[in-house]
Amino acid sequence: MQEKGSISIHTENIFPIIKKFLYSDHEIFLRELVSNAVDATQKLKSLAQLGEFKGELGELKVKVSVDKEARTITISDRGLGMTGEEIKKYINQIAFSGASEFVEKYKEKDAAAKDQIIGQFGLGFYSAFMVANEVEIFSKSYKEDTEAAHWVCDGSTEFSLETAEKADRGTDVVLHVAEDSDEFLEAARLRTILTKYCKFLPIEIEFEGEVINQTAPIWTKQPSELTDEDYTKFYQELYPFSEAPLFWIHLNVDYPFNLTGILYFPKVKDELQFQRNKIQLYSRQVFITDEVKDVVPEFLMLLHGVIDSPDIPLNVSRSFLQADAAVKKINTYITKKVADKLAELFRKDRMGFEEKWSDIGLFVKYGMLSDEKFYEKAKDFALVQNVGGKFFTLKEYQEFVQANQKDKNDQTVVLYTTDPESQHAFVQAAQDRGYDVLKLDAVLDPHFIGQLEQKLEKTTFKRVDADTVGKLIEKDEQQESVLSDDDKTKLQELYKGAISNEHMHVQVEALSPQDAPVVITLPEFMRRMKDMQRTGGGGGMQMFGSLPDSYTVSVNANHPIAQRVLKAEGEAGSKLARQAYDLALLAQGMLKGEALTAFVKRSADLLATE
């Protein structure tokens, strides 16, 4: 017998609305239909385990096939199957009422409102009408003495339902592909979609005679069952052209939410131009998205890997995550797991941890800057390295330098360099005083330094070229000048005239005779503001980025050259002052172009006249 009917809903244009608003990406029809087939198969397996199904399970594959000539795509399973009455209940009533509710609620609203609806049972089936102008269901229930049923709908609210001949239990969904969806009749296109969304489904998916998925990916297993080789092999499957990961974290929790997965630490070196969206989100082994910014903390978006959770709320199309309490808990849990893993690595193998620091330092610093709870854990294993290559924790370093590097205000002064090569003279001068110098040359270090100054008690950071070595760490004892006040004023004027640059502020200082005759420095505050602005310090820093550099030129009153400049006659004093100034520029890598050419010529002339 055949039954015809109309699906009871309040609108006639439900399918155009579903097609336009419910699913942003048409290709996911295949994900939805294959997922339904897998669910039906898994439910049958569960019934067999409970003893409620006593028949032969046999081969439990989901088969996908395409017939370009007939313009059909067929998804077949050997799962629960449905009787005619169940088709009416699940397809016509429950699924359609869910779709109808969606339409009634959102048809008058902005398209963005679609993101607010949580997925409902059965709605996935109607994604078929995005690519098909007619859909057929052939289904036979696993229950004994039931007839197979055949349901047909052409995308209107009309359907027909009749008994059918079907030898085996399960369901075949046949899509008659619409003219505007020819791309989905190409086998290569379907294979791409299946590989993307169904690669790790728990039931075998067969396409063109080949199983395209791994039914038990490693994140579904216990860590005790897996070797390092298993983890690295899986990483290569996910990211075929990437270097081997540094290490990984296996997530496995079932309370207060379900979450499994593996997060890999890749080698990113010290770059912020990394590729994000490398973490894949799954729900019961169905690929959902690689937009995981609400689930994974911002600083861990650098990681690679897989997260699988049925508890992450999705909208109907599963395209958008919803930031609710469950997501926040998962986010917090992942942060904690990463911090615990890093702490364990540091504790168990400090040398190995130090070797990896150039790769993982970026993660750690980014995390400390963006997450207060992570900072509290990470401060015990975050490392700094001095120019000699020795690593310290923050606490170790404070203890290491505090005896020698306290200033007259009882502040511990941490000296650092951002470029040991170009700042070598300043590093050397600091080391000659018995000071230690850190190497802080990473892209996040300007921000990291600012954070440490806020967090560490009575501690300030100064770059080695921020001032003359005697002023970097000011002590009570002062170096005496051999010049009178009048001589100092005369020397200052001579240098001002020789330099003739309004951005160079000349001062005469009593330095050691062994120090350079002239030292050029950029004050710490000014340079730091400009550094912060260059690495995204926010709107308030823009003014500093546009200001011209304002340098301090410290002329060493106690250097023999000071006496020569003062005693020289005519233009000789000015030339000598310019030469000493150019040497200071040269030491900073600031002597270029015409000024460099003039310096070389002047040096040659001086050598010739000696």
Overall structural class, as computed from helix and strand content, comes to alpha+beta
Q: Could you tell me the radius of gyration in angstroms?
A: 36 Å
In CATH, the architecture of the largest domain is 2-Layer Sandwich
Q: CATH homologous superfamily name of the largest domain? A: Histidine kinase-like ATPase, C-terminal domain
Classify the fold: give the CATH topology of the largest domain: Heat Shock Protein 90
User: What is the share of helical residues?
Assistant: 25-40%
Question: What's the overall geometry?
Answer: elongated
Description:
The chain has 610 residues and is α+β, with helices and mostly antiparallel strands. It has 4 domains: 13-211, Heat Shock Protein 90, CATH 3.30.565; 218-332, 2-Layer Sandwich (Ribosomal Protein S5, domain 2); 348-463, Rossmann fold (3-Layer(aba) Sandwich); 485-537 and 550-608, Four Helix Bundle (Hemerythrin (Met), subunit A) (Up-down Bundle). 38% of the residues lie in helices and 19% in strands. The chain contains 18 helices and 22 strands. The chain has helices spanning 14-22, 28-49, 84-106, 187-198, 228-238, 325-348, 350-370, 372-378, 394-401, 424-432, 445-455, 469-472, 485-499, 524-534, 542-546, 560-567, 572-587, 593-609; strands at 2-6, 62-67, 72-77, 132-140, 148-153, 158-164, 170-177, 205-207, 210-211, 247-253, 259-265, 279-283, 286-289, 304-308, 383-385, 391-393, 412-417, 437-439, 459-463, 504-509, 518-521, 551-556. The strands form 5 sheets. Strands 1-6-5-4-7-3-2-8-9 form a 9-stranded mixed sheet, with helices on one face. The chain has a 5-stranded mixed sheet with strand order 10-11-14-12-13, sandwiched between helices. It has a 3-stranded parallel sheet with strand order 18-17-19. α7 (350-370) packs antiparallel against α8 (372-378) and α13 packs across α17 (572-587). Keywords: ATP-binding, Chaperone, Cytoplasm, Nucleotide-binding, Stress response.
